Structure formats: C-alpha cells, structure tokens
Amino acid sequence: MGDKQEARLKARELVNEALQRGETTSWFDQLYRSAAGNDEAIPWADMVVNRQLAGWFDKHHPQGAGQRTLVVGCGLGDDAEYLASKDFDVVAFDISETAINWCKHRFPDTQVQYVTADLFKTPATWNGVFDFVVEVYTLQALPASVRPQAIQQIAGYVAPRGSLLIICRGREEADPPGNMPWPLTRAELDSFQQYGLKEVQFEDYPDHSEPSVRRFRALYQR
User: Fold this and answer.
1) Half-sphere exposure of 59 toward its Cβ, with a 13 Å CA cutoff?
2) 129/219 Cα distance (integer angstroms)
3) CA-closest candidate to residue 163, choices 51, 91, 73, 68
4) Helix/strand/coil (H, E, C) string of the chain?
C-alpha cells in the first residue's frame, strides 16, 4: 500500500471518529498535526499546484491583474502560490492552524495572505468582496449534512461581477456517496445558483489518474 493510500485511510478514520462525536471539521487539524511535517501523510498534498486547476488556466488563460482572490481550504498552499504567480492578490485560508503555519514555513517570502479560519465562521468583511473565489476539493471532504451551508458561505464571498471556480469529484444522484472524499452531484453544484450566481462553464470529465476519477469543474459568475 502506498503512502498516500495509507494517508487516505488515516483521514477516513479521523473523519469517522469526528462524526461519531458530532463534529464535522475538527479532524482536519488533527490530520495535519499527526503528519508532523511529513507531506506524504496528507492525502491531497501533492506539493505542486493541483493539475485540475492548472489545466483550467491552460485552457482559459484568465488574467490576474491584481484581482482580489480567495482560496478556500488552502491546505499546504500550492494553489494559492500558483494564483499569486499569475498576478492575483490572494487571501488563502484553512481551518487548520497547523496547515497555515506549514504554508508560511514553506513560502517565507510569499505574497499570499495566509489566514487560519473556519469556513462556517469567516470574517463578515469577506462577504461579497472577492473578484475570484477558488474551491478545490474542500466541499468533497465535508459530509452532505453541512454542504448546503458551505455552498451558501462560499457563494457569499463572490463580489459583484466576480467569479467562482469549483473543482471536485462528481457522481450521479443515484450513485452511492462512498467514502470521504465524497463526490458531489450536479444538483449540489446547481445550488450555487440560488445565491445570485450564474453557471457559465461546466465540465464533467474523467481524470485519468490511477484509478480514474470522475471530476466536475464549474465556473460561476455574479
């Protein structure tokens, strides 16, 4: 069994324990703390920009031009640093203080503003102020019971005429939800449009990893 597979099993164990305690997000910092600086113990940490995000940029060539940008659930910071390199003015947050400190250690000269924050309790000053919001693989790590609240919260960050990019695992409504990371349905993503956003791009495609994974990649605008 590879290190990343072991890391995923450890994460699922922590998730199940947290859910039994009636908690949904406490396990994130537990996972980062238990990793003790070993990125192989973090199942989603590739230590490079997410290739689904980079692939979208290669396809659509958006320009940063100082746009105020928010990265939701930034993990170890590679996506945030990539966006900063594209001339976006980036705020990146994660619920795990350990992860945020890890980012600051990895990128001591960063232009990114790294913040420890809970998605469900972020500053009111973030509401409606970001020109570009990026969420990669965070919703799929949250149980279905809290996703509607998370979706509403994420939608609320988007400024007038701003954009939101979502990248996640995808499934059909009739498919079993499986284990964490839990794939989202098209209906779940469509609910972003309840909050003043309009879908302008939607991709449903296989990520030819090993094993292959179905991905959804969607862009919304206010």
Assistant:
1) 10
2) 17
3) 68
4) CCHHHHHHHHHHHHHHHHHHCCCCCCHHHHHHHHHCCCHHHCCCCCCCCCHHHHHHHHHHCCCCCCCEEEEECCCCCHHHHHHHHCCCEEEEEECCHHHHHHHHHHCCCCCCEEEECCHHHCCHHHCCCEEEEEEECCHHHCCCCCHHHHHHHHHHCEEEEEEEEEEEEEECCCCCCCCCCCCEEHHHHHHHHHHCCEEEEEEEEEECCCCCEEEEEEEEEC
pLDDT < 70 positions in the chain: 1-2, 210
Q: How far apart are CA 13 and CA 11, in angstroms?
A: 5
* Separation CA 107–CA 121 (nearest Å): 26
**CA–CA distances in Å: residue 165 to residues 4, 98, 132, 198:** 26, 26, 8, 12
CA count, 13 A, side-chain hemisphere, 80: 27
- CB neighbour class for 222 (10 Å; exposed up to 12, middle 13-18, buried from 19): middle
Report yes or no on whether pTM surpasses 0.90: yes
Residue with tokens 């859910």: 19
* AA identity, residue 209: S
Residues 139-183: pLDDT tens digits?
999 999 999 999 999 999 999 999 999 999 999 999 999 999 999
